[in-house]
Amino acid sequence: RFTIDRPAEHATLDGMPFNGEPTDDELTFVTERLTVRPIAPDDAEDAYALLKHPALEFLDPNFIPETAKASAEFAERAQTRTDNDEQFRLYQWALRLNRSGEMVGLMSADLRCSDRLRLQAAPVEVRETETTAYIHPDHQHNGYAPEADAAISAFIEPGFEVNRRVAQIRHDNTGVQSKVKEEGAEKLPGQTQHGYETWVLYDGVDN
Predict the structure, then answer these.
(1) Proportion of the chain above pLDDT 90, given as a percent
(2) Distance CA 86, CA 49 (A)
(3) Which residues pair with 196 in a beta bridge?
C-alpha cells in the first residue's frame, strides 16, 4: 500500500463524473518514491525524449508529438483541460523521482461517459477509465507504474464514480499481464496495430 499525500480540501465535484474539474493540486500525488503531477509545459522536453526513445518505437506515431515544441503545446492543452467536456476527459501525469527529480515516465487516464444498452431495461450509464503508462526503458521493472497508478486511482475512481476500468497493455508485456490476470482481469479479443490489448480490470456496470 502506498502513502498518498494530498491537500486536505478537495474541489467540489458535484455529482461527478464530468461535472466540474479537479485542481492541479488535487491531481498531484506524492508516493514513497514518486511525485506524480499533471504534465506541464516545462515537462515537454523530457516527455518528448521519452516518447522518441528507440525502445518505445512501438508506440502509435499519432500519439508522439512531432517536435519538442509540439509536446509543449500538448502539455499546455492538457494543463488547461482544453479538450475536456461532459463525455470525455484526458489527464496526463509526469512521474518524477522524489530523490532526484528525474522523469521516469508518463501516465495517462482517459475518462469516458456513455450509455450501455440493455435488451429488457433502460440504458445504464457507464463511467469508464482507461489508464496507460509509458515508463523509460532505464526504469522499467521497478514498479513505478503500479505505484503511480495506485495513487491516481485512489482519487480518480471515487471522485468520478468510475464503474468500469480498463487498461491498454502490450501483448508482449507478460509480467504486467500475469499480474492483472491474478487480480481477476479479463482480456478482450484482438489487439491494436501497435500491439496493445485491452484488459478489463473490473466491470461494475449493471447489465
Answers:
(1) 16
(2) 32
(3) 170
Say which residues have a Cβ less than 8 Å from residue 159's Cβ, sequence separation at least 6. 10, 13, 16, 22
Strand partners, 168: 198
Reading the block at residue 42, the C-alpha cell is 516545462
Q: Rounded to whole angstroms, how far apart are CA atoms 197 and 127?
A: 20
Helix (H, G, I), strand (E, B) or coil at 39: coil
Phi and psi angles of residue 205, each rounded to the nearest 5 degrees, phi first: -75, 135
pLDDT in tens, 26-75: 889 999 999 999 988 888 889 888 888 888 766 666 666 777 777 778 77
The residue to which cell 499525500 is assigned: 5
Return the percent helix, strand and coil in the chain, to nearest 5.
30, 30, 45
CB atoms within 10 A of CB 183: 9
Alpha-carbon gap, residue 186 to 191, rounded angstroms: 14
pTM, to two decimals: 0.77
